[in-house]
Amino acid sequence: MKVSPSLKASLLLLVVAVLQQANGMLPVPKVVGIASTRKETKSLEQVLLSVRGGFNNRNNRNLQNNDKNSNRNNRNNRNNNNNRRRRRGEPEPVIDPNIRSISAKTCVAIGTILALNSGIINGVCLSGLISPQNVKQGSTAVTAAWSNSALGLASGDTSLFLINLKCILSYMTGSFISGFVNANPKPFEVNIASFRTALMIGSMLLYGSSVLSEEEDTNVFIFLAAMANGIQNSLTSTTTGNLVRSSHFSGITSDIGTYTGQAFRGNLENWKKLRVFMTLAASFWTGGYISYSLAMNYGNKVLLFSSILYLLLALVIGSV
């Protein structure tokens, strides 16, 4: 049986009217007129769009109401919590103005500068150019120091054993100072007072290292530099959840190899970390490269420059 176009249009208008009533848009008309011609009938596309628009409007209103109710509930919960604390005699929660959040990008930028600085310090100490006794001893990485101290003791070379043991203990002492001063670190949060204290101590250690490097009968300047690097590496590691390790590169070297191998197999989960580690490693290497010419031209004043860098960071840490 064929259905006339006018009847189709009338049925469609009736369905639309019922849907609009359910949607709260328009009241259902008491009488639905029957269109006599196709020209008086809306196209199916226009009708469906109008119905869909009605539903969208209702959904938007519901979302807005839900947001208002959620905000109201949050305010009520805060007020209730405050009232309960007052009844129990508990103090109001205090927001510590000494704690500042720091972004990952800022951490990487500062870490890159510090890695360059550590590369310079280590290169100056390892080259022997500023040591009157031409002692060549690294002040950042202590992996070799562990083995050299063991070899020195095994071979009966007491001086080799002692100098490497002192380097290990110096680096560890620097990390101890950092942990003691910044006892409760949280990832990507900076305790301004703790950081300033630690960096000021590091600055004084490097200043002392610069002065004592002129002494003929001592290698204390190497141990002071190692302590400063221990402070630096501990601060950057604990603040960034080990994302930025700025003065010790054995672990970073291993991670670069691991993440590169994963990337070759299509696993890019650690791609961002790989980029950070490669940046830090390149900065440290660059510091070692330029340390030779710096030591040749400026001597022990190079360590003084590093001391000033720590001091500047300590002064501006609150505004980073």
From TrEMBL:
Record carries keyword Calcium: no
A Pfam family per the record: DUF1275
Keyword Nuclease annotated: no
Annotated keywords: Membrane, Signal, Transmembrane, Transmembrane helix
Bilayer-spanning residue ranges: 274-295, 302-319
Segment forming the signal sequence: 1-24
Residue ranges, annotated region (Disordered): 55-96
Record field: compositional bias (Low complexity): 56-82
Protein name, per record: DUF1275 domain-containing protein
Organism (species): Chaetoceros tenuissimus
Top-level taxonomy: Eukaryota, Sar, Stramenopiles, Ochrophyta, Bacillariophyta
